[in-house]
From TrEMBL:
It comes from the Eukaryota. Residues 1-168 form the FAD-binding PCMH-type domain. GO terms for molecular function: FAD binding; oxidoreductase activity. This is FAD-binding type PCMH-like superfamily. It is found in: Secreted, Cell wall. Belongs to the oxygen-dependent FAD-linked oxidoreductase family. The keyword Nucleotide-binding applies. The keyword Nucleotide-binding applies. Keywords: Cell wall, Disulfide bond, FAD, Flavoprotein, Glycoprotein, Nucleotide-binding, Oxidoreductase, Secreted, Signal. InterPro entries: BBE, FAD-bd_PCMH, Oxid_FAD_bind_N.
Length: 402
């Protein structure tokens, strides 16, 4: 969105603000906003002899600044919450060029964040990962039954265990992938899975024990032992990608007939996949008012709709965007309502945009991203940036009448 504007605008390139300073006790680190998640993970793991990590996203190429400030999440969120839940302080510059600390934090809509003080978290000597893929059925259990069971247990199972369900299709057939990470050994993981999710039939050979830092590569679908962990320091994309992301929150289990209707639409729109990310655990313990991120207790899982294409031009984009919209529409009866909640970091102008910098326009998408926190954010914005200097298509608006 930074590159779209009908008036003169400025883009700040944070690429070279990338220093990472880890304190000697290994409890915290100062991270500049241009550092990538891969750089953070690599440096923290090396400095701590693989005994510390940080709960953030699974994509090492993400820039820390945008990821943190939008509520970035990863596969340790059920244990430790979001990246923003593990922020201690920040160094920012406001619209008046003052350098301030956390008391005025906001990002994007309020200020420029130069650096973040993050709280590092302990990780075990070994974690266990797995990825079980199934088409049609697994061991006689249908994909529908597996997805239904996943809904029953994913947000209630041991907080050390995160299982993402990814759904995609090929040749009119839906494929399900159950990808997980357990903060412990495979013996304990199998004990939990056999008790809580025996239908998946996870076995010892599918469980891989490794250091936490190496699990980052596993979640990138890099087979164990085929690449050094230093590959996560690569800032150069392997190929040009165009993409669309949307999001939804599910608060009640989707029935089996509902799942089957979703699978049917997904099988007819093969450019779209869905990742179902479980909540519960620490995510249900942090109050919705603690940070701007409101999607806490009451949510079973979040859906990410993904569509990627590699050819420039409106034709390729239009097809993928249309497919994404069709799948999203098919899922609409089963997700949150009034508002239909959305995740800020998947900036989605389909849910509203602010072309005239008005409070009314901003509220349309604002309550979907921030729910009841939206009004508080407007109050902060009105106080710290009354001239609306920091703005974009989905920024927090100023309430000019206040």
């Amino acid at each position: 969105m930074s590159y779209l504007s009908t008036v003169d605008f400025v883009v700040l390139d944070m690429f070279n603000l990338r220093s990472i300073e880890i304190d000697p006790k290994l409890d915290t680190a100062w991270v500049q906003s241009g550092a990538t998640l891969g750089e953070i993970y690599y440096n923290v793991a090396n400095k701590s002899n693989n005994l510390r990590g940080y709960p953030a996203g699974i994509c090492p190429g993400l820039g820390a600044g945008g990821h943190f400030s939008g509520g970035g999440y990863g596969n340790m969120m059920r244990k430790y919450g979001l990246s923003i839940d593990n922020i201690i302080d920040a160094k920012i510059v406001d619209a008046n060029a003052r350098v301030l600390d956390r008391s005025s934090i906001g990002a994007a809509s309020f200020c420029v964040v130069l650096a973040w003080k993050i709280k590092l978290v302990p990780v075990p000597e070994k974690v266990t990962v797995f990825n079980v893929e199934t088409v049609g059925n697994r061991g006689g259990v249908t994909t529908t039954d597996l997805a239904a069971k996943w809904q029953e247990i994913a947000d209630k199972i041991d907080n050390d265990l995160f299982i993402r369900l990814t759904l995609s299709s090929s040749n009119k057939t839906v494929k399900a992938s159950f990808m997980g990470m357990y903060l412990g050994n495979s013996e304990k993981l199998l004990e939990i899975m056999n008790a809580k999710f025996p239908e998946l039939g996870l076995n010892k050979t599918e469980c891989i024990e490794m250091k936490w830092i190496k699990s980052v590569l596993f979640w990138l679908s890099i087979p164990p032992g085929t690449a050094p962990t230093s590959v996560m320091l690569n800032r150069i994309p392997q190929k040009q990608i165009y993409l669309k992301r949307k999001s939804d929150y599910v608060q009640n289990p989707i029935s089996k007939p509902g799942l089957e209707s979703i699978f049917k639409i997904l099988s007819e729109n093969e450019n779209v996949s869905m990742a179902w990310n479980p909540y519960g655990g620490r995510m249900s313990e942090i109050p919705a008012t603690e940070t701007a991120f409101p999607h806490r207790a009451g949510n079973m899982f979040k859906i990410q709709y993904s569509s990627n294409w590699f050819v420039p031009g409106e034709e390729a984009a239009s097809d993928c965007l249309s497919q994404t919209e069709r799948v999203s529409e098919a899922v609409s009866p089963y997700v949150s309502k009034n508002p239909r909640e959305a995740f800020l970091n998947y900036r989605d102008v389909d849910i509203g945009k602010n072309l005239n910098s008005t409070y009314e326009e901003g509220k349309v998408y604002g309550v979907k991203y921030f729910k009841n926190n939206f009004e508080r954010l407007v109050q902060v914005k009105t106080r710290v940036d009354p001239d609306n200097f920091f703005r974009y298509e989905q920024s927090i608006p100023v309430h000019f009448n206040r």
